[in-house]
Amino acid sequence: MAGLGDLVQKAFYLGVGIASYAGEKAGDTLKDARAQAQKIVDELVARGELTAEEAQKVMNDMMQKAQQAAPTPSASAPKGAAEPRRIEILEEDEAPATAEAQQAEALRQQVAALRQQLEDLKKK
């Protein structure tokens, strides 16, 4: 079972890495959008189509809309939550008989059968 534990651990680390990468990319995208918007506003000011005050207002409005559109991790958490959400771990005899639990049990049986086949092949 040590192999299964390693697999679960690697899957967890993969999930954490993907989440971290996605967060970095979202930040980069926001920075890129800001740079492009700033470039456009600067061109409009240079042409005389916008004043410096109007340009600043346009940039502030764009950034405010962009930040509202991009959900922050704290936005998904319930308001007033000072601590992380608690996760309850049920014992096997307490687990409800749901479709997910039945599917998990079927997968466990498949893994056990595959392990048995692998052992049989190793013996040959």
Largest sheet: none
Dominant shape = elongated
Give the structural class.
Answer: mainly alpha
Helix content: over 70%
Number of strands: 0
In terms of DSSP E residues, the strand content is under 5%
Order of secondary-structure elements: HHHH
Span of the ends, CA to CA: 23 Å
DSSP helix count?
4
Return Rg in Å.
26 Å
Low-confidence stretches: none
Global mean pLDDT: 76
Explain what this protein looks like in three dimensions.
The protein has 124 residues and is mostly helical. It has a domain at 10-72. Helices cover 75% and strands 0% of the residues. The chain is built from four helices and no strands. The chain has helices at 2-47, 52-69, 73-76, 99-123. Helix 1 runs antiparallel to helix 2. The longest helix has 46 residues, at 2-47. It is elongated, with a radius of gyration of 26 Å.
Quickly describe the structure:
With 124 residues, this protein is mostly helical. It has four helices and no strands.
How is this fold's topology laid out?
Layout: H1 2-47, H2 52-69, H3 73-76, H4 99-123
Features:
124 residues, mainly alpha, 4 helices, 0% strand, elongated
